[in-house]
Fold this protein.
Amino acid sequence: MNINHHIQLAIIKKLMTSELPVTYTSLKDKTIENSLFSYHLNQLIAQNIVEKSELGYSLTVEGSRWLNDSGLSMSYPEALRVNIILVIRDKDSNYLIGQRTGQFKAQINDYLLPSNYYKNDLDVSEQIENTITDFIPEGCLLKQTDFGFTQIKITYSDTKTMRSLFCISVCVVEKFEPLVADGAREYYWKPWSEIEKYTHKSAVLIHKIKKYTDNTINSRPTPVFIA
């Protein structure tokens, strides 16, 4: 699978943020010729990223998983996904947990922690700092513990496997009004006693991260890449 044109990227972004299938007319930018738009839409259908129904166009489950694992970029490689993950909790053990919006929420990932994709042009400490800035308002961070990189493997019921490499930081904060990183995610505070009852695959991933970071022996300085 690959995205090789900005029209394909625009189609996917519209589908990601829509709860329901999107009609051809709503999906297409009026400035784009019908034949050009149809060509790129059909390219996505041929790769099983998008599917058509009587109600309109939607992301496929396979397409959603691929986008979730490889990143929404025309140049992102199909390789092990690397994320900067924040485990953010307040002094009363409420955790900041998110849900995707649109078709991603319905298909593959119901719950998630604040995160950013890893970028090779920055060192690790800069990326953690940037992620904290994206999600935690200035002055709210009380304590930060870095856990470095760890790989977590999830196998779906249909035997599809997702391997994720995470660089995890635990942040204890003064409770704040959640910031929204982008239009495809929304965040809210939940006590752990409620989160641990969630059974969705994405919640199981959060349970594993929580268990990993609860063991302080795993805490270690996050490496900084020096050229």
